[in-house]
């Protein structure tokens, strides 16, 4: 299977779909295949991957770190799904929005902050979010929102009296042996993402978070900022597939897969969310033959994606810097479905 995946990914490198990346395929026994292809960087110099690269996982932060931390706090009775945001963050002005609304992207908050590349510090981000108006009534739509997960990150910090990066290290990464995962990576091992040229930063982002909001928040946020390797994310996937007690209680693992919001958007597209995670439909990132009930998935803007299929006892992660050197060149979203179909078709090999 390793060669099947590598050959597919290498073909995409060859036609310029992305610079390169690393992957891991996991079952209940552990990582069964892993590998890498392509280049760590294309500019300012072309450097081949060697297999130890650390990647900016972008919105995989939402599920690997933030969602996991929220679920652990719920297990400890320090938070509930119906906890109102204002109970923890009194500056937030929408009194009826709950943890559930944020985790299912149905809060009514906008997807993003306008002109985020102009944000210079945490205070600016806080002022904008705490004064932000809703764009639809809470619960009526699903609009994937970075803002909601920024708030979740702040709630975690307030409840635990611990910075988000340190709390994640203490209760997630260290117990699972994820030694190359965190918010403050070794820049030398990091694959660079995009070249940023603006009033805040100039140069290639290498070991510095790609997302502008997370950058303004000093690289630590509930929505983005995490760096990792395929093997480390593989350890996380394995913990979920085996219901490792170091991560969650048994009942929490069942909750991971449950659809929480199922809505058809104005274009007629069905969108289904679990808590934090996406419930992938046929044609999506987990393939056409996806087991909807037993599968969760997520993607990251930099060119990363993850899916976990409980029924098949199979998980997969691809980490890449597809936005390098420019986000417009990233074609990873166009081949995720084909890659998942290939894996499912050859899973016995």
Structural commentary:
This protein is an alpha+beta fold and 349 residues long. It has a single domain (2-345), classed as Beta-lactamase. The protein is built from eleven helices and twelve strands. It has helices at residues 2-14, 60-75, 85-88, 99-103, 122-130, 146-160, 164-176, 212-216, 230-241, 250-256, 332-345; strands spanning 20-27, 30-41, 47-48, 55-56, 195-197, 202-204, 227-228, 261-264, 270-273, 295-300, 304-309, 314-320. It has a six-stranded antiparallel β-sheet. Helix 1 runs antiparallel to helix 11 (332-345), helix 2 (60-75) runs parallel beside helix 6 (146-160) and helix 2 (60-75) packs across helix 7 (164-176). The longest helix has 16 residues, at 60-75. It is globular. The chain starts with a helix and ends with a helix. The mean pLDDT is 97.
């Amino acid at each position: 299977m390793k060669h099947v995946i590598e050959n597919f990914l290498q073909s995409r490198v060859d036609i310029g779909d992305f610079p390169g990346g690393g992957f891991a395929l996991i079952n209940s026994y552990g990582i069964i295949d892993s590998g890498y292809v392509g280049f760590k960087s294309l500019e300012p110099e072309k450097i081949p991957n060697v297999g130890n690269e650390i990647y900016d996982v972008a919105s995989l932060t939402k599920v690997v770190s933030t969602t996991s931390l929220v679920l652990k706090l719920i297990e400890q009775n320090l938070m509930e799904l119906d906890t109102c945001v204002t109970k923890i963050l009194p500056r937030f002005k929408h009194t009826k929005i709950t943890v559930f609304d944020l985790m299912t992207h149905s809060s009514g908050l906008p997807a993003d902050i306008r002109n985020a590349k102009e944000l210079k510090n945490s205070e600016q981000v806080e002022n904008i979010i705490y004064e932000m108006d809703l764009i639809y009534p809470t619960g009526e739509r699903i609009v994937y929102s970075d803002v909601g997960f920024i708030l979740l990150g702040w709630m975690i910090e307030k409840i635990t009296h611990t910075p988000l990066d340190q709390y994640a290290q203490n209760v997630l990464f260290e117990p699972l042996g994820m030694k190359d995962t965190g918010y403050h990576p070794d820049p030398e091992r990091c694959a660079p993402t995009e070249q940023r040229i603006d009033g805040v930063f100039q140069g290639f982002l290498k070991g510095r978070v790609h997302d502008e909001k997370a950058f303004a928040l000093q690289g630590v946020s509930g929505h983005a900022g995490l760096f990792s390797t395929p093997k480390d994310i593989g350890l996380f996937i394995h913990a979920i597939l085996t219901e490792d007690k170091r991560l969650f209680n048994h009942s929490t693992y069942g909750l991971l897969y449950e659809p929480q919001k199922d809505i058809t958007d104005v274009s007629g597209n069905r969108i289904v969310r679990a808590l934090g995670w996406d419930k992938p439909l046929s044609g999506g990132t987990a393939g056409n033959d996806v087991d909807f009930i037993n599968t969760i998935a997520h993607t990251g803007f930099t060119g990363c994606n993850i899916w976990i299929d409980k029924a098949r006892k199979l998980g997969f992660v691809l980490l890449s810097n597809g936005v390098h050197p420019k986000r417009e060149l990233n074609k990873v979203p166009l081949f995720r479905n084909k890659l998942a179909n290939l894996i499912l078709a050859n899973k016995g090999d």
